[in-house]
Design a protein that fits this description.
This protein is of the alpha/beta class. It is built from 15 helices and seven strands. The strands form two sheets. Strands 3-2-1-5-6 form a five-stranded mixed β-sheet, sandwiched between helices. A two-stranded antiparallel ribbon has the order 4-7. β2 and β3 form a beta hairpin.
C-alpha cells in the first residue's frame, strides 16, 4: 500500500514539474495510470511535498537560471518559452510576469530583437492524432555538418521525432528514424506527407507496406503523399520554432568559430573534430526542445478555429478530451523487423571510428572529459585541433 502511494506521489511530482495544472494532473493519473484522485486529495499531496505554484523559488535561484539559459540557446526564446525552461528543466516555481520583467532587465536587446510580426498562414485541419504525420529535413546547421530531421503529428502538433546526424539525405537513415518511432508508439499514421526527394523513397515504401492491407480510403499507395516543401506547412511552420528556440544560437556559435579561424569546412580534421565534440550536445539539445514543445500549452488560435488548443502531448495521448479519436494504424513487430532488414542495413556512421579512437586517446592523455555543454565542447574542440596538429 505504501509503495503504491509512493509511486502515485512520484507521478504527481513528475507531472507538477512538467508544468501541468491540477486538472491536467488528475486527468493524466486517471487516463494514463487508472488512478482516481480528487482535487482535494491532490492539493494535500502537493502541500506535503511542498509543491505549489504560489511558493515561488528565490529571486537569486531564478535569476541564476535565467542567466544560465541566456548563455546558451535560451538567449533566443521569448518569455513564455523561458518560463517553461525554468519550470521543466530547472524545476523552479516562478510566474510568467516575473520572467517577462526579468528578461527586460537581463536581456533588453534580445527582447527587442524578438519583437517581430508573424507570417499569415493558410488554415490547416487534421481529424485527430495519427491521421497525418509531416516529415522534413532541416538544413540550417548543415554547413557545419549537423543535419536535422523531424516529424510532427498534424493534429496535436506533437513532435514524433527530432534527430540529428551526419546526413538527412540517406534514405536508410530517414527510414530508421521512422521505424524507431513506429515501434515506440506501436503503430503508424494513416497518412505521411513528405517532400519529393530520394531521402523519402524507403520511408514511403515502408509506410505503404505497413498499410497495404488496411481497409480505409487512404490505404496502400495513398498512405504516403509527396508534395512540395512549401505545401508541407505543419513541419515547415515548426522549423521556425526550432530556429527561434535553438538553431539561431547554434548558427551564431559555429559562425564565430569560423570567423575566428578555428573552423574550416575544407579541413577534414576540423570537420571530424566538430562532429565528435558537438554531435551528442546538439542531440540532447534537440530532445529538450522537443520535450518542452510537447509539454507547452498551445493557446486557442484566432486565425484557425479548427486547430485544437492544449498541450501537444495530451492532445496526442487523449483525443477523447477534444472529442475525436486516434487514427493510429497498429503494426506487428514482424513487419517492422522485415522493413528494418530490407531498408536499414549498413547505415553510414555519424562519427568516423578512426577519428573517434584518436580523439579518445588524446582525451585520456590530457585528462579531458566528455563535454556536457557548448562551452565545454568548444574547449575540447580547440584542444583536440591543437594536439592533432602537433601529430600531423
Amino acid at each position: 500500500m505504501a509503495a503504491a502511494k509512493n509511486i502515485r506521489n512520484n507521478l504527481i511530482e513528475e507531472y507538477f514539474h512538467m508544468g501541468f495544472s491540477c486538472k491536467e494532473i488528475i486527468d493524466c493519473l486517471f487516463l494514463n495510470h487508472e488512478l482516481n484522485l480528487s482535487l482535494r486529495q491532490l492539493k494535500r499531496v502537493l502541500s506535503r511535498k511542498n509543491l505549489g505554484r504560489r511558493r515561488f523559488s528565490s529571486f537569486d535561484e531564478v535569476v541564476d537560471a535565467i542567466e544560465e539559459e541566456l548563455n546558451s540557446s535560451g538567449s533566443v526564446v521569448g518569455y513564455r518559452s523561458m518560463w517553461q525552461k525554468l519550470v521543466v528543466n530547472h524545476k523552479l516555481s516562478v510566474s510568467k510576469e516575473f520572467v517577462r520583467n526579468a528578461l527586460r532587465i537581463l536581456d533588453p536587446e534580445g527582447v527587442e530583437r524578438r519583437s517581430r510580426h508573424r507570417l499569415q498562414r493558410r488554415q490547416y485541419h487534421a481529424k485527430g492524432p495519427n491521421f497525418i504525420w509531416h516529415i522534413d529535413g532541416y538544413d540550417k546547421l548543415k554547413p557545419y555538418g549537423f543535419c536535422i530531421h523531424g516529424c510532427i503529428d498534424g493534429y496535436s502538433r506533437k513532435i514524433m521525432w527530432l534527430q540529428v546526424g551526419r546526413t538527412n539525405n540517406h534514405p536508410g537513415i530517414i527510414a530508421s528514424y521512422f521505424l524507431d518511432c513506429v515501434q515506440n508508439v506501436g503503430g503508424t499514421a494513416r497518412v505521411i506527407r513528405g517532400d519529393f526527394g530520394t531521402e523519402n523513397v524507403r520511408i514511403a515504401a515502408i509506410q505503404r507496406y505497413l498499410r497495404h492491407e488496411a481497409d480505409d480510403s487512404m490505404s496502400g499507395e495513398k498512405s504516403f503523399l509527396y508534395g512540395r516543401s512549401v505545401s508541407n506547412q505543419r513541419i515547415e511552420a515548426w522549423w521556425g520554432q526550432l530556429q527561434r528556440s535553438a538553431s539561431d544560437w547554434w548558427m551564431t556559435h559555429f559562425e564565430q568559430l569560423r570567423i575566428s579561424g578555428l573552423y574550416c569546412d575544407a579541413d577534414v580534421v576540423h570537420v571530424e573534430c566538430l562532429l565528435f565534440c558537438y554531435m551528442a550536445i546538439i542531440h540532447e539539445e534537440l530532445q529538450r526542445v522537443a520535450r518542452l514543445w510537447n509539454l507547452h500549452r498551445i493557446r486557442p488560435s484566432t486565425r484557425n478555429n479548427s486547430s485544437p488548443h492544449g498541450r501537444p502531448c495530451l492532445l496526442y495521448q487523449h483525443p477523447e478530451i477534444a472529442g475525436t479519436v486516434d487514427y493510429k494504424h497498429d503494426v506487428v513487430i514482424d513487419d517492422l523487423d522485415v522493413a528494418r532488414h530490407m531498408c536499414c542495413d549498413d547505415l553510414p556512421m555519424d562519427l568516423s571510428p578512426e577519428f573517434t579512437a584518436l580523439a579518445e586517446v588524446i582525451m585520456t592523455e590530457e585528462g579531458l572529459r566528455v563535454p556536457e555543454n557548448a562551452n565545454e565542447a568548444r574547449t575540447l574542440y580547440i584542444t583536440l585541433i591543437n594536439e592533432i596538429n602537433k601529430i600531423i
